[in-house]
Amino acid sequence: MTLADIQSQSSQKPSPLLRFSRRVLMGTGFGALALCFGFWATPYGPAEADFLNRLSPPTATHWFGTDHLGRDIGTRLLFGAFWSLGLSFVISLAGLLVGTLIGLVAGATGRLPDMVLMRITDSFFAFPELIAAVTFAGLFGPSTINLVIALSLVSWMKFTRLSRSLAKSIAEQDFVIQARLNGLPAGLILLRHILPNVIPSLLVLWTSSWSRTILAVSGLSFLGFGVQPPTAEWGAMLLDGKPYMQTAPHLMIFPGLAVLISVLVINLTGDRIRDLLAKTK
Question: The whole model's pTM is what?
């Protein structure tokens, strides 16, 4: 290889997907730093009540106003992001990991494991996420732990179907067949050859799953089956502000905007990743 070849390779620009991934990581880092700065900079606590300033509209001291107990809504929105975004992230990530593992095993090991695992997956599809969470909360009581368990139990099937379909297709490719003929163990084939090729499509599905889980967590908390007061969670904040919708609409406007913007940003990120993947094929 000549010096000119080395210089030409070093001058090549990274792929659009790689550049976008870097931007997403930078944006995520800035967002995390902004939340940490908000936790440190706010002079109020999420449960700190001030009964003399109940239902105050946005002012210079309370940028987003106060609720029916005089608690600062801006501070509660910051701490609510930890619960709404954090819980939905954990639930969707658990579904991604479990569903991908089951789907890879079903799609790349044989007919009998495929049939058994997919029948189990189909049986779980009979329980919609919200109905399953409400039923679980009715049986064991509304709480954050029961919310996470219920939504986690019904969040993995989409990933199982997609990873299984992709794994069956990739398992018929020449490089996988060659790896089998060379005596490579099945587990190593899954990790080295099949898993890297299914991750991009699963990532797109995961972004949409994360946004739907945000809506599920907030919706169930609004119905009283999820995160319980006085915890600052966006859905629970909407529930607290419901009786004051006419007299103090900011109690519901700001938590609703937080849910809307978060879901919109995550969905747009997933759409952009999907478009970039389509261009690279």
Answer: 0.84
